[in-house]
Design a protein that fits this description.
Blueprint (H helix, E strand, L loop, with lengths): L1 E7 L14 E7 L7 E10 L2 E10 L6 E2 L10 E10 L4 E9 L13 E2 L10 E8 L4 E11 L1 E6 L20 E7 L7 E9 L1 H4 L16 E10 L4 E5 L5 E4 L2 E5 L3 E5 L7 E3 L1 E2 L7 E3 L5 E7 L3 E4 L5 E18 L2 E10 L1 E2 L5 E2 L9 E7 L2 E4 L6 E9 L8 E9 L5 E5 L2 H17 E2 L1 E2 L12 H14 L3 H14 L25 H13 L3 H19 L33 H22 L3 H22 L11 H9 L8 H14 L14 H6 L4 H9 L6 H6 L35 H8 L2 E3 L6 E4 L9 E8 L2 E10 L2 E8 L4 E4 L8 E3 L2 E8 L15 H5 L2 H10 L7 H5 L5 H7 L4 H17 L2
Parallel strand pairs: 12-21, 18-28, 36-40
Antiparallel strand pairs: 1-2, 2-5, 3-4, 3-6, 6-7, 8-20, 9-13, 9-16, 10-12, 10-14, 11-13, 14-15, 16-19, 17-18, 22-31, 23-24, 24-29, 24-30, 24-31, 25-28, 25-30, 26-27, 32-37, 33-34, 35-36, 37-38, 38-39, 39-42, 40-41
Length: about 900
């Protein structure tokens, strides 16, 4: 037995910690099955002094064990030793360290400094200071932040690799600072330079394109602590002794792009000016920083029909393009960004709306590498101007996002479903850029709460979101109140508050983090905000105890109401609002239980019962019809357990009938989509869930895959079958909300779901989907890796399950009765079955259009029925299925069957 992956506050040997009671986690690796931790013993030392000795604690807790020793000191390195004994009496030890930052903001001597350049100066200021050191240095730490976004350079090299620091928080309330180890960068003579871009603080922000949301001057704030080997210390801090100049970055806006002039920038130099700044808002970096996590080479160079010169990177990403080039002195290179080409193959930047996303470089005649500093774009293609021949430069697309660890794997035997998983995963990466954004490309990129809420489970199956959401929820909490409720976007720049499914984020996201990572602290921290959101709704209810007033987004973008100005779908908006009201009241009740708040638990339990009763009176008839017999109306009734027990079957039938009326397609929006497959799978209609999941024509998940999507679209028909676009002015190709199906893919198809917080106890219950013969699911939980691999092929089912040490799994095998409860270990099952999940690619339900897309089919039709396909009437029938066509031409049956058989044979041979 051994310990591995020891962490303090989710991080490996972190620096810059300011938690008063940091929490320690470790994982156990054991050769033996059924391993459970029997006891742990933690010792924390500052040098040789023991500051915390837990003693031997008989407990299986190995996740987020809280420090309970002497008060921690600022800027101190602590060593942690953990000793564990398991139930087999094996013993193992592990070590880790953590270093604290400044606990008291009064310890910061630095001032926020700014400039007094002319108001119309757009160049990013560079704040700088020279200083000397004349003794040997033991260590040096730089604490830095900005009003705006910054980069620091020390004696030339960039400090750290993080981008868009200090990130976006509710700046009035909270401003993160970053801690860097700069020991290796210092010399005797030193120069520190700090460049600040407008970023979210001062830049143009929101679809109304307003600048100066938080202030009209950027600012720099830095404090360098040097510890000499003789034990003395020195502090270099931003103040009015610093200089400020304009540099090579002449313009930078998140939406608009950046201009870098390395040839003849106008340089003005001044003394820095002190800016009023309340240091109490400072807080140490809370989440993983934004970083470049992948570099992608061009897939293709294209000259469009319009003559535009493009680079296609093959993947819609968020980030930047690095250009390596040797231009002439003064040569201007312009890079524009777009997600997609239009149906004629021309550059199509319309999905960006008013965001220009243009980067401009002025060359200096040398070999140069350009990469923007304070912006990011959502793109797959770039259009390059100012270079005759694109092969004279090297282009690399750099994907950037909050660098959360990847914890989930989902793959299967179906290529299109794998592409869907890839699109979901990219949608996550592209939109978790310090805050969870709706989309990364257009003049928005805001922390829309509804989008993040519906996607939060899926996100947490794929990446470790604990710190990311912890930070974001602190902003949520800071900006929410009993009076106003919870904002629609966080950080709030719109001033819009309190709508169901959006503002419910306040309760749902902490609950997701608690369930996924076993993190109770997020419930403690957000308890006020969580229960006040429920209280806010209660305060806005009518006499019947229901919330039936005010603005609602409803089932946003659902297809069951003709697109109207409010885009809210056909389901009664207040039915949705009250469904969520009940759902979050239940979460708050459960959170109260977890936090040991008995009185509150009783209060919310009573509220839950009462509201549910009123809900049933209002939204169901006595015989179980729903006020809104829509898919979403039925889905929330089942999934949120709102329907009376006696009515559940009827409501399930309502749902199934509705789906059948849509030719087995969904018609749901933001509210119904995450739950529709769950509602079916959990109520005995899993096959129906599988059917709508595997649909390939509009509207469906795989429709966008067939249309070449590499991310999840905002709308089911963002791109129409003929290659034209939705023209509502709101058509992003990178919106993760509909990617929320990922939760069902992990939970139901791979079958992995948590039963106890952190997956201390979990369930493996894979459910078959016709068309998917094998599935691989894996999840690196806080205890270790869960694996669920399932195959059903050629009359045999095989299941491989891995259960991490210190956890228990409840395993329900496909087509077997009962469940087995297993401790840690690796297990394999194999048994016979009659089931075949194989689906031939072509059937009588394939459309004529699909069939004649295959040259073999065209050949066959031409030889058996010459001229048939040239008939203009036949062209109109391309959307019809072969079985529909047979209705009109029954005599063609043998021909159609021969074509289908030949195509499926060809498909098999090609693998
Ligand atoms: C955003 C959404 C958001 C919605 C709310 C849109 O502009 O992109 O995804 O949730 O507004 O109405």
């Amino acid at each position: 037995m051994n310990l591995y992956d020891l962490r303090t506050e989710y991080r490996v040997d972190p620096i810059g910690i300011t938690a008063l009671k940091p929490r320690f986690s470790w994982k156990i690796n054991s050769e033996e099955n059924d391993t459970v931790q029997k006891s742990y013993h933690i010792v924390v030392k500052n040098g040789d002094t023991v500051v915390f000795d837990s003693g031997v604690v008989e407990s299986s807790q190995s996740v987020l064990v809280e420090y309970a020793g002497d008060a921690l000191l600022s800027e101190t390195l602590y060593h942690v030793e953990v000793e564990v004994v398991d139930n087999h009496e094996h013993q193992a030890k592990g070590e880790m360290t953590f270093e604290t930052a400044l606990f008291d903001n009064a310890e910061f001597k630095a001032e926020m400094i700014t400039h007094d350049f002319a108001d119309d100066e757009t160049a990013c200021p560079v704040f700088e200071k020279e200083f000397t050191t004349d003794k040997e240095i033991a260590s040096a730490r730089l604490y830095a932040t900005a009003h705006g976004v910054y980069e620091v350079y020390l004696n030339g090299p960039r400090v750290g690799e993080d981008r868009m620091t200090p990130g976006w928080t509710s700046y009035h309330n909270r401003l993160q600072y970053q801690t860097y180890d700069v020991t290796a960068l210092l010399n005797d003579n030193n120069k520190i330079e700090m460049t600040v871009g407008n970023g979210w603080y001062k830049g143009i922000l929101g679809f109304t394109l307003e600048p100066n949301r938080y202030g009209d001057h950027v600012g720099a704030f830095a404090q360098l602590h040097i510890t000499y080997k003789d034990g003395t210390k020195e502090v270099i801090a931003t103040d009015d002794s610093w200089d400020v100049r304009t540099g090579t970055i002449r313009y930078s806006e998140i939406y608009m792009g950046e201009t870098i002039n390395t040839y003849d920038p106008e340089v003005y130099t001044r003394k820095a000016v002190i800016k009023p700044f309340d240091k109490s808002v400072l807080t140490a970096q809370e989440n993983e920083p934004v970083r470049i996590t992948e570099r992608i080479s061009p897939k293709e160079f294209i000259v469009t029909p319009k003559g535009e010169k493009l680079v296609d990177f093959g993947q819609n990403i968020t980030g930047l393009v690095e250009v390596k080039v040797k231009g002439e002195k003064g040569q201007k290179i312009v890079i524009r960004h777009a997600e997609v080409l239009d149906k004629d193959g021309n550059f199509y930047p319309e999905t960006l709306r008013s965001a220009k996303s243009i980067d401009t470089y002025i060359c200096n005649g040398q070999e140069q590498t350009f990469l923007p500093h304070f912006t990011f774009h959502g793109f797959r293609y770039i259009c390059v101007e100012g270079l005759e021949d694109l092969s004279t430069a090297k282009f690399t697309a750099c994907a950037m996002h909050s660098d959360m660890a990847k914890i989930g794997e989902f793959s299967c035997s179906n290529k299109k479903v794998n592409q869907l998983q890839s699109n979901i995963s990219w949608g996550l990466r592209d939109n978790f850029l310090d805050i969870p954004t709706d989309c990364p490309q257009r003049d928005e990129r805001l922390g829309w709460t509804g989008d993040a809420q519906v996607f939060s489970w899926t996100a947490s199956y794929n990446r470790n979101t604990a710190l990311f959401f912890t930070k974001w929820m602190r902003d949520m909490s800071a900006e929410s109140s009993l009076e106003k409720g919870v904002p629609h976007v966080c950080p709030d720049i719109l001033g819009q508050y309190s709508a169901s499914a959006w503002s419910d984020v306040a309760c749902i996201v902490p609950w997701v983090v608690y369930q996924t990572f076993g993190d109770k602290r997020i419930l403690e921290e957000n308890w006020r905000c969580m229960h006040e959101w429920v209280d806010y709704i209660t305060n806005h209810c009518g006499e019947n105890g229901l919330w039936q007033s005010g603005f609602q987004y409803g089932d946003w973008l659902a297809l069951d109401k003709e697109e109207s100005a409010d885009r809210t779908g056909a389901t009664d908006k207040y039915m949705i609002a009250n469904a969520y009201y009940i759902y979050v009241t239940d979460i708050v009740r459960q959170a109260a239980v977890v936090l040991g708040k008995k009185e509150e638990a009783d209060k919310y339990s009573a509220l839950y019962e009462k509201t549910l009763e009123s809900f049933r009176d209002e939204y169901y008839t006595k015989t179980g019809r729903i006020v809104s017999e829509t898919q979403t109306g039925a889905v929330v009734s089942l999934y949120f357990n709102l329907a009376r027990d006696k009515d559940r079957e009827k409501i399930l039938n309502t749902l199934i009938t509705n789906i059948a009326n849509h030719k087995d397609h969904l018609s749901t929006g933001f509210v119904g989509t995450p739950y529709i497959c769950h509602a079916l799978s959990e109520n005995g209609a899993h096959e129906k869930a599988a059917t709508i999941f595997m649909k390939e024509d509009y509207p469906s998940w795989l429709y966008s895959v067939n249309m070449g999507a590499t991310t999840i679209w905002e709308r089911w028909n963002s791109i129409k079958p003929d290659g034209t676009f939705d023209e509502s002015g709101m058509n992003s190709l990178n919106h993760y909300a509909y990617g929320s199906i990922g939760d069902w893919m992990y939970r139901k198809v791979a079958g992995i779901s948590q039963l106890e917080p952190g997956y201390k106890k979990f369930k493996i219950e894979p459910m078959f989907v016709k068309g998917i013969e094998s599935v691989h699911g894996a999840l690196d939980t806080v205890y270790g890796r869960i694996v669920s691999d399932v195959t059903c092929r050629e009359g045999k089912i095989t299941v491989h399950v891995e259960v991490p040490a210190n956890t228990t799994a409840v395993i329900i095998l496909p087509e077997k009765e009962g469940e087995q409860v297993l401790g840690s270990g690796s297990y394999d099952f194999e048994y016979a079955t009659q089931t075949s999940l194989l689906v031939e690619k072509f059937s009588m339900e394939s459309t004529l259009g699909e069939v004649v897309a295959e040259p073999l089919a065209v050949e066959m039709f031409n030889s058996y029925a010459p001229g048939m396909l040239d008939n203009p009437l036949i062209k109109f029938a391309f959307g019809m299925s072969l079985s529909e066509m047979l209705g009109q031409a029954p005599e063609a049956k043998p021909l159609y069957e021969a074509v289908i058989n030949a195509l499926n044979k060809q498909e098999k041979e090609n693998g």
